[in-house]
Amino acid sequence: MRVVLATHNQHKVDEFQKILGARMPGLDIVRYDGPEPVEDGTTFAENALIKAKAAALHTGLPALADDSGLSVDILGGAPGIFSARWAGHGKGDRANRDLLLDQLADIHDEHREGAFVCTIALVVPERGKAAEAGEFAVEEVASGFWRGMVVREARGEHGFGYDPVFQPAGSALTAAELAPAEKNAVSHRALAFENLLPILSRTLAL
Fold first, then answer.
1. Structural domain harbouring 158
2. CB neighbours of 68 closer than 8 A, spacing ≥ 6?
3. In this predicted model, what pLDDT tens digit does every residue of 19-67 receive, in sequence order?
């Protein structure tokens, strides 16, 4: 079974293939080569579905897409869907982290809690004229939440994004101080994959 992943990043395709392919023999995940849609949703789920629908329509294949970010409780869930551009378009990971730390500078530790969130969407196009009209047989989402807190200064050399300032619940280390294999086994993306598997197995068996 071929499934398109709504990304131009081959490394992400390889990651999805490694994780899902190991659990579902015969699953072949391919990279999306079409135009990128405008991600104008207001939630992780909406943006993941926008990307998955675009890939499904362009290819006619079942499509997967993910959207993820950091949600801080005291900021009302921000940076949230704006995590990758919190400091402005093109500013980069360091600027995003520095702005977040500055915004939380006067906040006591007990109020610095939040979670990394990952939502993966699965979309299966309808056949025939329904597909041309943009109708879908399946629209499903699965999410993973990795609870923790924002520390006061960046620590660690692994990972990317907000990893150096996020300390998972129950750990004395930041996500960037964890070994990559250890992080990948417990992260928000790992939890989303676990929640996606039964949906994917049930859907693709139809």
1. 2-204
2. 44, 83, 116, 117, 118, 119, 188, 189
3. 888 888 889 999 999 999 999 999 999 999 999 999 999 999 999 999 9
The Cα–Cα gap between 129 and 24 comes to 30
67: annotated active-site residue: yes
Instruction: Quote helix, strand, coil % in the chain, to nearest 5.
Output: 40, 25, 35
CATH code (residue 195): 3.90.950.10
Q: Give the torsion through C-alpha atoms of 24, 28, 31, 34, to 10 deg.
A: -110
Q: Which of 33, 40, 66, 67 is catalytic?
A: 67
Strand blocks (E) in 25-84: 28-31, 63-72
**Binding residue ranges for Mg(2+):** 67
Which parts are annotated binding residues for substrate?
7-12, 68, 160-163, 183, 188-189
| Positions at the binding site | 7-12, 67-68, 160-163, 183, 188-189
Kindly report whether the peptide bond that precedes residue 79 is cis, defined as omega within 30 degrees of 0.
yes
Q: Scan for tokens 């101080």, then name that residue.
A: 177
CA distance 24 to 187: 21
Average pLDDT over the chain, rounded to whole?
Answer: 93
The total of structural domains in the chain comes to 1
